[in-house]
Amino acid sequence: MYAIVEDNNITQYINNPKSVVIGDVRYPAKIFSAWTASELAAIGIIEVTFDNTNKKDEKWYINTNQTYTYDASAGTVIAAYGTATAKAHADSFWTQSEIDSLPDAGNLKDGDLKSEGLKTKLIRDLKTTVANELAKTDWYIVRKADAGTAVPSSITTHRAAVRTKCASMETAITNASDTPALETLYTYTKQEDGSVTRPLGELPTLES
């Protein structure tokens, strides 16, 4: 990506090489590949440098739009993010004063859910994953109910372990104090033994 700078102001952005007019001169698209960076800068075309220092994982944060800044002394155009805002980790609920301020509150009542927080969404996703894991062995349970065939102890043990781990994971999510704490639970790091783990842990899987 390039920026065209005229009179110390960015006047245009170019995502892909194309013919451009600067002043009274039209330059062909091939200058972007044939000219050096200094030759392009001499006519006001500067490749944008992206600064992602403030950019955060969008699963947990809302990033700002990028701001483009021309530094005349350095001859650079920097695209940078502002300070990201953490997504709400807990549910929010309508208060009566908020409802009273609405032009049309409909059937809203004090205490009704206003928006879901990350915890609610993460726990819902966890339960879906658990359901999918248990579904792999549900047929044993159905067979037991239909034909009386005993469920292998390994299956019973696995299903119990899945439910137990789910409960501990749900507790960890519920007890997280804020969004950074939730992010930490899900962040994988390499251990001394070479394994890669996360504080939240993993659901047990059935060995084949």
Kindly describe this structure.
With 208 residues, the chain is of the alpha+beta class. The chain has 3 domains: 2-85, no CATH class; 87-116, no CATH class; 118-208. Helices cover 36% and strands 24% of the residues. It contains 7 helices and 13 strands. The strands form 5 sheets. Strands 2-1-5-8-7 form a 5-stranded mixed β-sheet. Helix 4 runs antiparallel to helix 6 (153-175). The longest helix has 23 residues, at 153-175. The mean pLDDT is 95.
Q: Topology, pairings included?
A:
Elements: E1 2-6, E2 9-14, E3 20-22, E4 25-27, H1 31-34, H2 37-42, E5 45-51, E6 61-62, E7 66-71, E8 76-81, E9 85-86, E10 92-93, H3 96-101, E11 113-115, H4 118-135, H5 138-147, H6 153-175, H7 179-186, E12 189-190, E13 196-197
Parallel strand pairs: 5-8
Antiparallel strand pairs: 1-2, 1-5, 3-4, 6-9, 7-8, 10-11, 12-13
Helix pairs in contact: 4-6
